[in-house]
């Protein structure tokens, strides 16, 4: 009877595992950011955790895409903000350019498509590229690596 009960609970537990991973990643980003007196969080990281923890085999979840997509898209947003300011057309141009560049560089990561909007609408400075973007994305990847190792999942499938 216990074996049957365990088998019935197993699929539910498996569905909880990605949520636990996302919890750990965001908690660590928040706590380490507080400790370092800097932000290691931004809204698109929540969506990145969905991909990194629920779809670890996806090309979109791999370190190259997760880190590279966020860094590249943020860089596009910062360049657009500096060059053009905030206008409907410059917001659209920045998102379109970020998508195109992620495709060309094989760093496609859908949550990163929000980064140019975030940068431009908040007026973020160039330091935003380091914190929270680069350090926060790298921390999510490191947590995903440790977490998936602990849960016996193969992640990443490739680093580069």
Low-pLDDT residue intervals, each spanning 5 or more residues: 1-9
Number of helices: 6
**Percent of residues in helical segments?**
over 70%
Oligomer: single chain
List keywords for this structure.
160 residues, mainly alpha, 0% strand
Protein architecture, described:
By secondary structure, the chain is an all-alpha fold. The protein has helices at 2-36, 44-54, 63-84, 88-105, 115-122, 130-150. Helix 1 packs antiparallel against helix 6, helix 3 (63-84) runs antiparallel to helix 4 (88-105) and helix 3 packs antiparallel against helix 6. The chain is globular.
Short structural summary:
The chain has about 160 residues and is mainly α. It has helices spanning about 1-35, 45-55, 65-85, 90-105, 115-120, 130-150.
Helix and strand layout, with pairings?
Blueprint: H1 2-36, H2 44-54, H3 63-84, H4 88-105, H5 115-122, H6 130-150
Helix pairs in contact: 1-2, 1-6, 2-6, 3-4, 3-5, 3-6, 4-5
């Amino acid at each position: 009877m216990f074996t049957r009960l365990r088998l019935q609970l197993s699929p539910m537990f498996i569905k909880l595992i990605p949520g636990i991973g996302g919890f750990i990643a965001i908690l660590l980003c928040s706590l380490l950011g507080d400790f370092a007196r800097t932000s290691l969080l931004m809204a698109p990281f929540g969506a990145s955790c969905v991909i990194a923890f629920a779809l670890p085999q996806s090309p979109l979840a791999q370190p190259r895409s997760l880190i590279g997509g966020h860094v590249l898209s943020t860089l596009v947003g910062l360049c657009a903000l500096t060059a053009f300011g905030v206008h409907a057309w410059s917001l659209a141009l920045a998102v379109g350019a970020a998508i195109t560049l992620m495709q060309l560089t094989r760093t496609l990561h859908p949550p990163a498509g929000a980064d140019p909007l975030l940068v431009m609408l908040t007026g973020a400075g160039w330091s935003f590229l380091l914190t929270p973007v680069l350090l926060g994305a790298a921390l999510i990847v490191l947590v995903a690596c440790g977490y998936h190792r602990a849960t016996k999942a193969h992640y990443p499938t490739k680093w580069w």
